[in-house]
From TrEMBL, chain A:
InterPro entries: MetI-like, MetI-like_sf. Residues 105-298 form the ABC transmembrane type-1 domain. Gene3D superfamilies: MetI-like. It is a multi-pass membrane protein. This is ABC transporter permease subunit. PANTHER family: ABC TRANSPORTER PERMEASE PROTEIN HI_0355-RELATED (PTHR30151:SF20), ALKANE SULFONATE ABC TRANSPORTER-RELATED, MEMBRANE SUBUNIT (PTHR30151). The chain crosses the membrane at residues 105-135, 147-169, 238-262, 274-297. Belongs to the binding-protein-dependent transport system permease family. GO terms for biological process: transmembrane transport. It comes from the Bacteria. The keyword Transferase does not apply.
TrEMBL record, chain B:
One of its GO terms (biological process) is transmembrane transport. It is a multi-pass membrane protein. GO terms for cellular component: plasma membrane. It comes from the Bacteria. It comes from Parasedimentitalea psychrophila. It is found in: Cell membrane. Belongs to the binding-protein-dependent transport system permease family. Residues 84-273 form the ABC transmembrane type-1 domain. Pfam families: BPD_transp_1. This is ABC transporter permease.
Automatic annotation (TrEMBL), chains C, E:
GO terms for molecular function: ATP binding; ATP hydrolysis activity. Keywords: ATP-binding, Nucleotide-binding, Transport. InterPro entries: AAA+_ATPase, ABC_transporter-like_ATP-bd, ABC_transporter-like_CS, ABC_transporter_ATP-bind, P-loop_NTPase. Gene3D superfamilies: P-loop containing nucleotide triphosphate hydrolases. It comes from Parasedimentitalea psychrophila. This is ABC transporter ATP-binding protein. The keyword Signal does not apply. Pfam families: ABC_tran. Belongs to the ABC transporter superfamily.
Length: 309, 281, 264, 307, 264
């Protein structure tokens, strides 16, 4: 409850600040348009205004203030513009009975989500396998771990087109290339967290199993795996957000046919800032939902295991 | 075909040597700990070279390590220029600004429970905005030169550092805080003598994550507009020219710079948090 | 110095109540606690786990707010006394800061209270001597054994001039021999400085050996079931523990404890 | 039916109307072809896809194709549906630019990705340096939208007659606020949107035959699109899965595209090729090609398709 | 059952040495240790912190490899004995798995050793009864007090048929009353099952009360300084602790300890 009030307050402040920021950000565009439409603007001429301070322009042309919140292609769209666009492309689409039309963010969100989930599953699987290998084999620990870190310093956006071309060449198209890129981003947090988790049992807990003469396999299922669960969930939450970014990056070079990435790109090509912002928010909302969902699963699983107080 | 078989042999050989080293008596010495990953990397490169040649993969798809090394050697000054533009001007300045801002913000949030409750969820939401969407916007706002790259980096590193620092500043045990209470220590006394040192391991966690984010962020931003220099610029234009060797040379620079940046921060961490169990080994 | 009757009350608790609100409902940690501690008293608190010993000590040091009754320290509220830096507190675990070496850990309260540099060094050397840690000032906590850490944390509490020393099972982790030795040292220090000491322990002989007053507590709800004034002299050699008075008091404490021990 | 995969060099838009029309109207089907059209994107290089075997045939601008050929990827132009270039620079009039000589000291947005060469050779022809300074131009790597011009981050930007120029006008700018320089008019035009295939694959008569049928159907599509621009734009719109294109924009693009395809029956005019090569060889310091390419085009396919 | 002389040696250590290689150079944890433990013995190990008690226990259980000398368990190496699941080991802290409730914690070794489901339930109920935890099987460790946790971990070690029970300060964290109670229980269990028990403690009375043999150790390097055979009968009521024999043995142990306590 306290949190809710705090969040709402912060949101209110941010939105107020956002509206205020629209003034300086959009004033030049608004004035140029107003001038073309015949209004009197001081000073005259877009070129003269180029190097002037935005605040001064706002003060000198106060008639234009309202227009900075309703521009067609603003530098910074106002909150309500983004909200309206989001509604038009989601809720309104559902009401019209075509939620899967290609102008609907539900459709594009689903395209991205499916690649995200597939990639997340692959990345998590790979990450867990690697972590198990690293924990059980010293060679893997010493040789793979440093390179896993290096792999994350490579800019994925440079690699993505190459991955896609290589996969094309072996006949793989569609959702899989995107999923692989998204797996590439999500496996790393899982490896790191899972290695930490599988190593979290202390010496005493391990020794206990030794006195029982338990096999490595029994040790894994009875001790290491359950002990790693809290760590696993923490990294899964990071991993799924990374997966979503991966799926979006993967959409850019595949012809940006559909998906939130395609909306971002399309918006960017045609200067549709409102469309970019709504796609951005849709992506962030999707990520937040996925993380929240994992949080719920985490709570249920840990509770069942008796690990949460 | 011969080469492919050879590649398999090299792989097994490299693995065998590493297995010997890692399970050998010297496995905990610094030398071996460096050698094993190096051998792994070299094996990987050899296998790559042999497979590319063996399967006759065209250079425009995947150049061999030798091709990449040649391109690297032939374009040193260009690579250096790109490195300066992207890493020093874009990534580093953005990193410093973003991390400092996040740190100051974390202190403010630490002092006000209300702000912390309100800002953390909103911050997590903002952190989920995909960079490929924010980068074009920031290029539009901050222009084509490194300023917009630094802005992208600021946005990317801000939240990991913020979240970790906030968590770190709350990491002290009740007993450690109570001790300060019995001394009737002021806020800043307990901040500098207790909370800050205790938070350092967390802060560095955020700082380390941010090193790779910073470089990747600066490069990605250059894809959406840049002057005619920079690692991201070079990568995106070289793909168009099918100079894949140049693309990979830049990727090598990125990996080197990123790893060294990470290593440098990790080293500072080792010095400053020598007392933490994870560093005592 | 030995028989100077000090009747000046330092700590006075009247009808103290403390209820923790937890997820499983309220926990009454202290119920109707009355106690007077005079200047120069050495008061031990003994009782089964969970009977509120730590909680009571924390209330005295203003680390916890009572939910009922009242408590005064030197005539002030505990919080005012805290602001005047009246307390040296030794926690159950040593609670040294791992990023400071032993010397800097001990100097921590001195830095905070604004002692001069020369004064800090002087006091450091004094207390190091006292707890026999000279030569270890450059070591970090994790480089010392548990016993040495505990001694360093005692030194830290002694380094500044607190009138009231509150110690929560300071010797719990030590073996008998070391414990005996530190008990002796603590008694000497107490006799020399005339500090008022509140001391939590699980060990009956320790409580009897050290105290002028033994407070026996009982759980669910936490309350005081017995207060035993010790007739032992202030000067106490270790073998006083074989004297009949000692054994008698120990017996009384054990009986008191057993009575409070319903189940568990 | 024989399978053909066509790699476009950009996202679905009326620039590629001919192929979508041929697909939609069943012209490919009539030739017993099963064509799949792969849209491109900002950082996908069609030659790379072709080299990897991900596509059988692709569209490309000639500078890029010739560069790839010199890199050892034997691309061959088998048809050239675009007769003229749609590339131009668009500048604000109030910057005072009236001729290329006025570029000095100005900031100009240029598309890279192999498309910078016509610009570089143009500048070297004008004797203007491209590394900044008061006597040269400051070059920006422009993204694929017109923001740099609208935000006045650049004085001039690259535009296509059929796409970005329209966007500038759409955002409320009137034509007389702008000055434009068409590469075609400046004599530095290079060939755009040709159809390319790999040399070794072309040696296979069956593949040749497939290409003949493909080019024939595609040109039929182009001519249909030229004649029915409205319908063509609608077909393109239907094929765009991203939902980002607008009707009006595609309509206008189709009209402009029709101007560029007019005058080509698909056969490459060797004179155009020579002019392109000359432009590229005349480029600045870091030339895209260093020598005149041999065998970079063929008439075999178009001859067979159009006879 | 009381005076059956069992002279069959279960554990024999001969000239045992153990050196740890650490960053600060080698640490000699055990030097030239000789000891014979017979079937049915209750052996206590006592000595100051760091003298190698835990290390010795760990060597017996094959959790640590000696660097010199030799040790046999039932005529085999400790590792062979470990494979035959000869040991029940109770660690210093309870070491229960937090994700398993008490019942499943106790059944853990039974699962690993492949007992049938019916057998598991039977044994669970037996040992729960024994340590008086019936009714708590569904609770998770953090829902129990420290004493109950420790009892659960003892139950876990008793659930399967290990001949040798090794206990490392199992009652260190408990208060005296609970401790007395568990001591009694442990003696009863031992009398009934004739297990061989190795027991580490810091408390002299505890060692004397429980053992047939008290091993006094001394640090730097860790070695055995005294082995005291107890003449006390196997049947031991709590008040045996006031008998002169008891006090005499306790005295001898204390002297032995003091001798080994040079500094620290
Ligand atoms: N912060 C807290 N929140 C809720 N309950 C608490 C809190 N602190 C202590 N308690 C409860 O109050 C009671 C008294 O606790 P306290 O720590 O004072 O016991 P103690 O006598 O010091 O025990 P021990 O000998 O185990 O240290 C216990 O039941 C404990 O669970
Ligand atoms: N794994 C290890 N590596 C290095 N040194 C060790 C290790 N384990 C124990 N030691 C050292 O060996 C010595 C004996 O340790 P041990 O744990 O056996 O003592 P202990 O008698 O059980 O002490 P305590 O009463 O504190 O439990 C100590 O000096 C300790 O520091
Ligand atoms: C990655 C990439 N960027 C630009 C072009 C050139 N190009 C071809 S069509 C078009 C846009 C028309 O609106 C442009 C710019 C390319 N081929 N590939
Ligand atoms: Mg306590
Ligand atoms: Mg031990």
């Amino acid at each position: 409850m306290k949190t809710l009030i705090a969040v709402l307050t912060v949101l209110a402040v941010i939105i107020a600040f956002w509206y205020a920021a629209c003034l300086p950000m959009n004033i030049k565009g608004v004035l140029t348009q107003a001038e073309r439409a015949g209004a009197e603007v001081v000073p005259v001429g877009a070129k003269e205004r180029r190097d002037l301070g935005e605040i001064g322009l706002v003060l000198g042309n106060q008639f234009a203030i309202a227009a900075t919140w309703s521009q067609d292609r603003p530098r910074l769209p106002a909150p309500h513009q983004v909200a309206v666009e989001l509604w038009k492309t989601t809720g309104a689409m559902v009401l019209k009975g075509k939620p899967m039309s290609k102008r609907s963010l539900i459709f594009h969100g689903w395209v991205t989500l499916s690649a995200t989930l597939l990639g997340f599953a692959m990345g998590t699987g790979l990450g867990i396998l690697l972590a198990v290998g690293i924990v059980h084999s010293k060679v893997m620990d010493m040789s793979v771990m440093p390179w896993a870190i290096v792999s994350q310093t490579i800019p994925i956006i440079a690699l993505a087109p190459m991955i896609i071309v290589v996969l094309y060449s072996v006949g793989v198209q569609g959702i899989l290339p995107k999923a692989i890129i998204s797996a590439y981003l999500s496996f790393f947090p899982v490896v790191v967290g899972m290695v930490k988790g599988l190593r979290s049992p202390d010496a005493m807990q391990l020794d206990l199993l030794r006195t029982y003469n338990a096999s490595a396999n029994q040790g894994f299922w009875a001790l290491r795996l359950p002990a790693s669960m809290p760590y696993l969930f923490t990294s899964l939450k990071i991993g799924i957000a990374a997966s979503l970014v991966g799926a979006i990056v993967g959409e850019l070079p595949t012809g940006a046919v559909a998906g939130l990435g395609a909306r971002l790109l399309g918006g960017s090509y045609y200067g549709q800032t409102v469309q970019i912002w709504s796609a951005l928010f849709a992506a962030a909302i999707l990520a937040a939902c996925l993380v929240a969902l994992l949080g719920v699963i985490e709570r249920v699983v840990l509770k069942r295991m008796g690990m949460s107080a | 075909m011969m080469l492919v078989i050879l590649a398999a042999l090299v792989w097994c050989g490299g693995w065998w040597v590493n297995a010997r080293l890692a399970n050998g008596p010297q496995s905990d010495s610094r030398g071996v700990q460096l050698l094993v990953p190096v051998i792994f990397g070299v094996t990987l490169l050899l296998v790559w070279q042999l497979l590319v040649k063996g399967l006759q993969i065209p250079m425009v798809i995947l150049p061999s390590p030798v091709d990449i090394a040649v391109a690297f050697g032939a374009n040193l000054s260009k690579l250096w220029q790109d490195f300066l533009q992207t890493f020093v001007k874009g990534a580093l300045s953005g990193y410093v600004m973003g991390c400092s801002a996040a740190f100051l913000m974390a202190i403010v949030m630490d002092r006000s429970d209300f702000l912390r409750r309100g800002l953390l969820p909103v911050g997590n939401f903002v952190a989920a905005l995909p960079i490929v969407g924010t980068a074009p916007i920031l290029v539009m706002w901050f222009g084509f030169d490194w300023h917009s790259k630094a802005a992208v980096v600021v946005v990317m590193v801000f939240f990991p550092v913020l979240v970790n620092t906030v968590a770190g500043l709350r990491e002290t045990s009740a007993m450690q805080r109570d001790l300060m209470q019995t001394y009737a220590a002021s806020y800043w006394q307990s901040f500098f003598k207790l909370r800050l040192p205790a938070a350092l391991p967390f802060v560095f966690n955020g700082l380390k994550i941010s090193t790779t984010l910073a470089l990747v962020g600066a490069i990605v931003a250059e894809f959406f507009g840049s002057p005619t220099v920079g690692m991201g610029f070079r990568i995106s234009t070289s793909v168009g020219k099918l100079s894949l060797d140049m693309v990979w040379a830049e990727i090598v620079v990125a990996a080197l710079a990123g790893s060294m940046f990470y290593g440098a921060v990790a080293m500072v961490e080792k010095i400053l948090t020598f007392w933490h169990p994870s560093q005592r080994g | 110095m030995t028989t100077e009757t000090t009747t000046q009350a330092v700590i006075e608790a009247r009808n103290l109540d403390l209820v923790f609100q937890t997820n499983d409902g309220p926990v009454q940690a202290l119920r109707d606690v009355n106690l007077t501690i005079n200047k120069g008293d050495f008061v031990s608190f003994i009782g089964p786990s969970g009977c509120g010993k730590t909680t009571f000590l924390r209330v005295m040091a203003a680390l916890e707010q009572p939910t009922g009754g009242e408590i005064t320290v030197n005539g002030m509220t505990p919080d005012e006394a805290r602001r005047q830096r009246a307390y040296g507190y030794v926690f159950q675990a040593s609670g040294l800061y791992p990023w400071r070496n032993i010397a800097r850990n001990i100097k921590l309260p001195l830095e905070i209270m604004g002692y001069t540099k020369a004064e800090r060094e002087k006091r450091l050397n004094e207390v190091l001597e006292l707890v026999e840690l000279s030569g270890f000032e450059g070591k970090y906590p994790w480089q010392l054994s548990g016993g040495m850490q505990q001694r360093a944390s005692i030194a830290r509490a002694l380094a500044f001039d607190a009138d009231i020393l509150l110690m929560d099972e300071p010797f719990g982790a030590l073996d008998e021999i070391v414990r005996d030795h530190l008990n002796e040292q603590l008694l000497k220090l107490w006799a020399r400085t005339n500090k008022t000491i509140g001391f939590v322990t699980h060990s009956i002989p320790e409580a009897v050996y050290l105290s002028t007053k033994i407070v026996v507590m009982s759980p669910r709800p936490g309350r005081i079931t017995d207060v035993i004034e010790s007739p032992l002299p202030k000067e106490r050699p270790l073998d006083i523990r074989d004297s009949p008075e000692f054994i008698e008091i120990a017996h009384r404490v054990r009986e008191g404890l057993r009575a409070g021990h319903g189940d568990d | 039916a024989d399978e053909v995969r066509l790699q476009l060099q950009w996202v679905t838009q009326a620039q590629f109307a001919g192929y979508y029309v041929a697909l939609d109207k069943g012209f490919y089907g009539e030739e017993d072809l099963d064509v799949s059209i792969l849209p491109g994107g900002p950082d996908i290089a069609p030659p790379q896809v072709l080299a990897g075997g991900g596509a059988d045939v692709m569209l490309n601008w000639m500078p890029s194709a010739l560069a790839a050929r010199e890199k050892g990827l034997p691309l061959v132009n088998i048809a050239q549906p675009f007769k003229s270039s749609g590339l131009m620079l668009t500048c604000w009039k109030d910057t005072g630019i009236t001729s290329p000589a006025d570029f000095k000291g100005k900031t100009i947005g240029v598309w890279f990705f192999g498309n910078e060469y016509p610009f570089l050779s143009w500048m070297s022809k004008e004797g203007i340096s491209t590394d900044g300074g008061p006597d040269g131009v400051t070059v920006l790597k422009q993204g694929f939208n017109v923001d740099p011009l609208l935000q006045r981050q650049a004085d001039c930007i690259s535009t296509m007659t059929y796409n970005e120029y329209g966007q500038v006008l759409d955002s409320g700018v009137s034509e007389d606020e702008l000055v434009t320089f068409k590469y075609e008019d400046m004599g530095v035009a290079t060939l755009e949107d040709g159809i390319y295939a790999l040399e070794d694959k072309l040696e296979d008569p069956k593949f040749q035959d497939k290409m003949v049928r493909f080019v024939r159907a595609s040109m039929k599509g182009w001519k249909y699109a030229e004649a029915n621009p409205g319908e063509a734009a609608d077909i393109v719109l239907e094929n765009d899965a991203s939902g980002a294109q607008t009707e009006a924009h595609q309509q206008r693009m189709m009209v402009e595209i029709a101007k560029l395809t007019a005058g080509s029956n698909g056969t490459l005019d060797p004179a155009d090729f020579d002019r392109t090569v000359a432009t590229l060889l005349g480029g600045g310091s870091d030339p895209v090609i260093t020598k005149t390419p041999e065998g970079a085009w063929t008439h075999i396919i178009t001859d067979a398709a159009l006879k």
